[in-house]
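User: Hi! I'm working on a homework problem where we have to compare a predicted structure to a textbook description. Could you give me the structure for the chain below?
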Amino acid sequence: MQINKVRVHQIKLPFSFDFSHSLRKRSSAKNVIVEIIAEQDKIKGYGEGAPRSYVTGESQEGVAESIWRFTQHDNFPWDLNDASQIWDFIDTLSNSKDHNSAICAVETALLDALGKSQSRPVIEYFPHDFYTGTVYYGSAIPLGDKQCTIDFGRMAKKMKINKLKLKMGKNYKQNKENIAAVRQMFGEDYDLKIDVNGVWDLNLASRHVSLINRYKVKVLEQPMMPDDPDLADFAGVMKSSGVTLMADESVCTLKDVERISAQGHYEMVNVRLSKCGGIRNSLKMIDDLRAKGILFQIGCHLGESGILSAAGRLLCLLCGDAVYYEGSYDEFLLKENITRENVSFGSGGKAGPLTGPGLGVEVNRQNLARLSEISESMTRPATLKHGFLLQN
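Assistant: Happy to help. Predicted structure tokens:
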């Protein structure tokens, strides 16, 4: 398969409602879509990155610039015939978190194009040692007032979902009201995680210990910022209470896995495709977590389109040993999407494989064009050793 053009779209996806956590209040998401055009427009593959400055330090503009640099690498697979070419290319890229969203976008686009050219689903290119045919997603409750918590809790209960992630911030009174509202709705029939996005200090974290114990919180996600010197003390308190600490922003790379393993504070990691540099890099991290006896969940970024939801579904199915699954929130969060398929879960959070070649989704090109704020194209170099042509 000969790739003729690479197109990068900086898109803005509107939400059906505001969704807040302790670091951001969002009514939309700014993501990057990579479009691989091959065989004279006969094949189009799509990938997505969700740059979040507070996670990997990336911006939309920075991701676009990284992608253009990637295509200048000597081993960028302009002539793509085997998945091994993608792995060889990905393995030469940065092993720091600074380009992870860009790597994710390019990798998923290349895989989608290859799968379509060979009439194969992308999942066939990966080992199936931990494969499962069905996963069950949980539900997230955004940071808000008590009524917001009740509204989202009712939605989850209507969907027969009791695996819940409750966002918390710095307001102790609000946090207390919200967790009490969850208990009132679900009784003790829930599996509850709290996600703080790193905004607590030791004093505020300590104030929440009684709430965490009283309401039987199982997992506490990223209570403090990475490298907070007080984390060790608080981790000891949580361990004695039987609460699992999960790292999110603290772990974006294999090197981060090594660091938290040596420290011993976190017992679980949230693996998110865009945060961790795509499917191949995520699976490498997961293999290392398994070897070290550290638990993990497959998560997502707020505001992923159907493209990343499809890639996330693939990763979930490849990891039947994950403790939790998050994602595929398209129907419930996005006002507009760029895929024709509804990549959402059903009752109980149940979801299975997507059908069709590539990632299993078809992009609505009209929606993509309308939601793109900036689109640029790069044609295949006439001589691969001599630069490229960038077009608006």
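For your comparison, note the following. DSSP finds 14 helices and 14 strands in the chain. Residues 385-390 have pLDDT under 50 and may be disordered. Good luck with the assignment!
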